[in-house]
Structure formats: C-alpha cells, structure tokens
Amino acid sequence: MITIRYAKKTDIDQLLRHWMELHNYHIKKLKAGKDLKLARTARQNLRACFNDIKIPNQELLVACEQDKLAGFCDFEECCRPSIYEVQKIIRINYLYVSSDYRKHGVGKSLLEKLMAIKKTRNIREIEVSPYITNEAAISWYASQGFRKKSLVLVL
Hints:
Layout: E1 2-6, H1 12-28, H2 38-50, E2 58-65, E3 68-81, E4 86-97, H3 106-120, E5 125-128, H4 135-143
Parallel strand pairs: 4-5
Antiparallel strand pairs: 1-2, 2-3, 3-4
Helix pairs in contact: 1-2
C-alpha cells in the first residue's frame, strides 16, 4: 500500500536516486539539453529541505511503499498576479514516479494529496509547466483534469 507523507531526512539517498533518474530522463528522452541544471537544483533543494535552510513556501511530498520510495512531488505555494487580483496557487515543480510504480496510481495519489492541501489552504489553483516535448507528462496531466491556460515563451 502506498502512503503519501512529507519527506524526512532519512529519505535523502532514495530521493537523490529518483532526482537523477528524472534528470537522465530529461537529458536522454526529452533532449532537454546538457545545460539543464536539474541535478544541481536537486541537490540544492534536498539540502535546503533537510538542513532546515528553508526555501520559502517550498515543500516535498513522497510516496512510499513501506520503506521504499515510489515517487515524489516538489511543490510550492506562491502568488500569481493577475489583472484583477493576486491569486494564491500551488505550483508543481517536479512530480516523479519511479518506473517500477508507474500505472499503479502513485502519481494520482500524490496529486490527490496536493488537492487536499489546496482545499485546506483555500488555494485557487494547482499549476504545472511540463516541458513542451514531454508528451507523456502533458497527456497524464490532461487525464487528471489539467487544462491549458496560458503559454510561456522564453528567450
């Protein structure tokens, strides 16, 4: 049975393995480019989470089957300005499920926990910005009810 909880210091080794799997996926499968700083970001985020050097509003959930990590969700609560009002949102930075646990509802369980957090904190939306080349992620998020709302262009 999968349980969802906040990450603990004892999770760090397994989390690093999962971050590296995610990093390799972005490099090899999505052709995101070798300049992608995901591995360094992973180490910084984990160091912040586990050394009490808090990144404001950033949180880390893990999905576990007993002592084995099945996946994680790195997210933050933030504000998005709009024309009419400032909106509180949850932004998913990374949601990753180990290949051994895909198609078993782990990602959905992580998302359900986020939806419960959203409701408890009276937050308007959950947003995610997958790489445009990550068709599998885009399809999965759409199947979970996410819809296109805006387009981000970079230079």
